[in-house]
Structures are given as C-alpha cells and as structure tokens.
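Project standup — Tuesday

K.O.: blocked on the structure for the chain from last sprint. Re-posting the sequence here as requested.
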Amino acid sequence: MKHLSLLLLLLAAPSLLAADARPAAKPAGNGPKWKKLLPATPEGFDLRTLEVEKHPEHTVELYVYMPRAEGLWPCILDIHGGGWKARQVEADKPMMERLAQRGFVTALVSYRLSTEAKYPAAIHDCKAALRCLRAHAVELKIDPERIGCMGGSAGGHLSGLTAMTSGLPEFEGDGPFKEYPSTVKAAIVMAATQDLVASNRDKTSEGAVLFFGSSAQEKPELYRSASPITHVRAGVPPTIFIEGEKDTLKIGRAEMMERLKALGIETSVHTLKDAPHPFWMSDPWCAQTVEIAAAFFKRHLGEPVQR
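H.V.: unblocked you, prediction finished:
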C-alpha cells in the first residue's frame, strides 16, 4: 500500500475540475499490484516527430509510432492529461505503443498548456494536430478517412471536445493545414468530466481558472462552450468512456451518454475494477484499457489494408 500511494502521487494528474479536486481514492490493499510502465518503441515501428506549429511559448509537436510494414493504416491520436497544465506525453506513450501493435498508427500531441496559453489554444492545437496527420498521411501510412482520438483526465476533456465539435469551424483556430479536416470517426474519453458548467457552478477550480483565464461565475458561456456535452448532436462520432472504480465521479458523463443514446450514437462506459484516476499509465489497467480501445477502434476504424 505504501508503494501504491507513492505511485499515485507521482502519476496522478492534477484535477481538471473543482468536482474532481478531492484526492483520487486508492485501490484497496488487497487489490492488484501496479506495475510502472516506461516508453519503449515496439519492434517493427519507428517513432517520428512532426512539428505541427511553432508558437513563441511552445512548439506543438506530434510523436508518431509508424509501422515499417507496408499498408494503409487506421490512426489514433492521443491527447495527454495533466490538469491542462502538466505535459504528460511520456506517461501515455506505453499505452499508444501497445495500441500501435494492435494494427494502428498511433500519435500523441504536445498541445499548449494553460501556463503557456489560455483556452482555446489547447483545442486549436488538437485540431491542428489532426489536420497535420492528414497532411502527412502518405508518408505516415495513414488512411486519412480512418482517424480516431482518445485521452485521459484533462486529455479526456479535450478528446471529448475534439469529437463533439467535429465539423464546427469555430473550434478550428488559425493553425496550419487548413485545407484538411480535423474530424474523427470515433473517440474514447477516459476519467474526465464533460460538463464544466455543472462541475464549477458552486466552486472555484484553480486549474480551470488557469486554463480559461476566468472563473465559471465570471464567464459561464465560455465554460459552457468548452463542455463536450454542449455539442452533442446528430452526426457526432461514436464515443465511449473508460473510468476507474476508485476515481471520483465525472460530472456530465452520464447525461452526455443519455444524449448520445437518444440520437442513436454508440456509447458505453467501462469501469475498471480497483483502478485509480491515472489507470492507463500502469498495469494491470493499461492492458485492460488497450483491450477495450483496440476492440472499439477496430469496429469503427477497421484493420490495416495491404498495398
């Protein structure tokens, strides 16, 4: 239990909402033993770095696991967590390495953090990253028609927002590769609140104020516009949720699922037993997450196609 507590302190992302400000519950002492994961590029893959856009405060980059085998591959973009203010690309790499081995080109985006630029900079960077993947599709062996996204914690918020705003030009920003779309065909949200208005209604979240530059009381419409649940409508992609049993309640997730179901859009929630908030960063929960994600994305993005 002592070692597990230390892991959670090292890995747990800062809470992205006031409702999540309580420390994440720790797995029971008789629960599964965690195993720390470190990045290691899989055999048969190359790790490429692409520059998306250079800003004075940060250069947005993509880290892409590209298979050496020939073919046309579906692609998954990962949006890392960290309370919008910590860069946790390295912690997400093991998950994306395993997904690459399941038949995908996988990529991670280093978007601008709240300490570097205020919202909507982060969502603009995620959209630009998707356009960049399509602009480099041929060299990366990506099928540009088969791209999905996923993310956890703050990255789960951005993954949900990226998916729900697919096709809405007001969320694109002024980034490069504007001749390409930023749409996704499927999305996974992990451990993330989807209604920022409800979660910040009676509290002031320091993380949210840093991200938005104001409180929900000062700018409720800004928080509403940045909430994935706000943009649920016909035509948004299938979206599933993965959560840890020992994590806190994610406000707006259940209501968002109801709206998706009412529109006939596939959605479901997978709760991982004994899992803490940053479950995708360590085993056994990373392995469980990869199983769920691989099955979901194969249904909606398909298999590699030989050329």
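K.O.: great, moving the ticket to review. Confidence is low (pLDDT under 50) at residues 1-28. The chain has one domain: 40-191+202-301.
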